Prior knowledge:
alpha/beta; Rossmann fold; 5-stranded parallel β-sheet; 50% helix; 15% strand; globular; binds 2'-deoxycytidine-5'-monophosphate
Amino acid sequence: MTTHVIAIDGPAGSGKSSVSRQVAKRLQWIMLDTGAMYRAITWAVLDQQIALEDFESIGRVAINSEITIHTDPDNSQVFVGDHDVTQGIRSPEVTAAVSAVSALASVRSRLVDLQRSTVADAEYGVVIEGRDIGTVVLPDARLKVFLTADPRVRAQRRGSELGQDLSSQDLDHMEATIRERDAKDSGREISPLQAASDAINIDTSDLTQEQVVERIVQLAREVYPEISNPSP
Ligand code: DC
């Protein structure tokens, strides 16, 4: 079992996933994208045409779905049973429904267990990213990072991820959607999005991805001086 953990939390569009992947590659650690797990359960709920108000059935889906998520930072494949849902979990339908599904205690307790056991099984080091990693999933993690960015910057990043040149009206809309999802994720009763009191905050608005990665790798070397020779 590893004691080398970097817990990275932050809101949608703060750059968590790409940064976590790059950090894991640099350190040659595994990486766990916990948002992809919540998205996988949401995909299964929509696939079975379960209403978002039907909490009991959603709880059953959470317990019964077999979720496989690759932890190799070069492979972001996600499966629900035999279905490759790597693309499907990024659909607008899943994105719209995931806040509601991830607010349920039944869903969270199943996935938190899965997250903890994945970390416990890791041989060396784990970069794990989400919303409640430093506060709930791994409160004893020795390195916790909370990434933020201005909502406008996050909207612009989302636009370039989608390969689109967005008009200012589109950007307004995307920024509003991001603010709405932040409010839902931060305002929910169970495990709201919040920085752990011992997390290091990094505002990425004016930083390149490479600068953020470099900063976190440096922090990892300070907190875990024993990590040998991470690749450049
Ligand atoms: O990071 P993401 O956008 O893929 O996350 C999708 C949703 O999952 C997000 O709206 C909040 C939820 N989530 C969560 O509640 N807890 C986590 N640890 C990770 C994600």
